[in-house]
Amino acid sequence: MWAYIFSIAILAASIYALVQGAELFINQSSALARKYHIPEFLIGITIVAFGTSLPEFIISFIAASQGNVAVSTSNIIGSCIANIGFILAVTALFGAIKINKANLKFDIPLSVFSVIIFLVILYFTNGQINWIAGIVLLVIFAAYFVLVYFREKNKSMESTPTHAKIHPFLIILSIGLIAAGGKFAVDSAIDLAGLLHISNGFAGFTILAIGSSLPELIVSVVALKNGKNALSLGNIIGSNFFNLFFIIGISS
Asked: Where, if anywhere, are coiled coils annotated (predicted)?
């Protein structure tokens, strides 16, 4: 009994550290980006999406380095499903998500298509993402963000004052929280899976996927409530690309 309680407590504390670390990182990164008047959607799809995807990256990278490929891959796939089926739905409960024509014609279809591309690569590699497939994923990732950058760079962003100050110490602290939280989240989830006699893959697909997706949910809801619709949508779309192409590409 105590083993269950201990594993659950460590997992909950780890996820909390991940969320707090991601929030700190996002606040600091957004403050820096806004100083140079970067378009809101571009902030959301790059800096904020990267920040909220850091938990998935740390969890998957650590799991892969420990030889737990099932945890690494299932965590990413589960997180992408959570982004589209859970986070987008819950965020919409807090207000209407306005989607412009560019997002409707390009970003959203490509976000869905990215999952198909990934599954095709997974099929032709017999479920094993080697370094060659990893390079292909990273090239696709880079190509998408280059396209978005050139599309968004000429758009002006309103000068919105921000109360967040840029502190290098907080950036270092946020990375430390995310790294430590990711390490203990992987270890406790694997321990819990063993106690419950379930596979590591299932644990990654459910417990870790939902837990590591909490930063995306929190950021998207808060951004929408603050009137930052483009930031909220960009975070959800960008997180899927980071998860599927960057994180798995690097982890391979």
From this structure: none
Does this model's pTM top 0.70? no
Its domain, for residue 43, covers 2-251
The position carrying tokens 């430390």 is 176
Which of 82, 52, 61, 83 has its CA nearest to residue 247? 61
pLDDT digits (tens, 9 = 90+) for 93-117: 887 777 777 677 777 787 777 778 8
Q: Are 11 and 192 in contact (CB under 8 A)?
A: yes
Sequence-distant (6+) residues with CB within 8 A of 190 are 68, 71, 200, 203
Which amino acid makes up residue 220?
A: S
Question: According to DSSP H, which parts of 1-130 are helical?
Answer: 2-35, 40-43, 49-65, 69-81, 88-93, 101-102, 108-124
Residue 53 vs residues 6, 58, 110, 154, 178: alpha-carbon distances, Å: 26, 9, 18, 26, 10
DSSP 139-177: HHHHHHHHHHHHHHTTS------------HHHHHHHHHH
Number of domains in the chain: 1
| CB distance 14 to 138 below 8 Å | no
Kindly state the tokens that stand for 244.
Answer: 């599927």
Which CATH number does the domain housing residue 42 bear? 1.20.1420.30
The pLDDT tens digits for 56-89 are 788 778 877 877 777 777 777 777 777 777 788 8
